[in-house]
Amino acid sequence: MSRLVKTMITSLVILLIGAIAALVVVLNVAGQGNEGDAQTIDDIVEYSYKSPEITTDLEDGTFVRIQFQIVTDGKKARQEIEKRDFQLKNILIKELATKTEEDFKSGLSNLEEVVMTELNGLMTEGQVTEVYTINKILQ
Questions:
Q1: What's the whole-number average pLDDT of the chain?
Q2: 92 plus 32 within the same structural domain
């Protein structure tokens, strides 16, 4: 092989390696730009569903009246949650029946997580992203 051919092949290999490296960098930077995009407050309001107030008894005999704001990831998911209202009530009644008054005083994060997980197990159009307790009265 002549010296010119070796130089051309070496130059092409170096250019190819540089192009691959540039492609990897561009794809990683572009991928990181989309990560962590949070919903805006307008999206949260538009895609959220306010559950009806539910009054039920707790394990220790006390009563609770509670209401949730359920945030979904899109319009179709919100519409599906509205249709699954009866299933939401069923999940809440079953979960609340195992709670005591002390569970409500120590926090509701666990209940919100359980409701979100159970609803996501039922969903076919999108998913529930957050569950907020917006009203709670212990009697």
A1: 86
A2: no
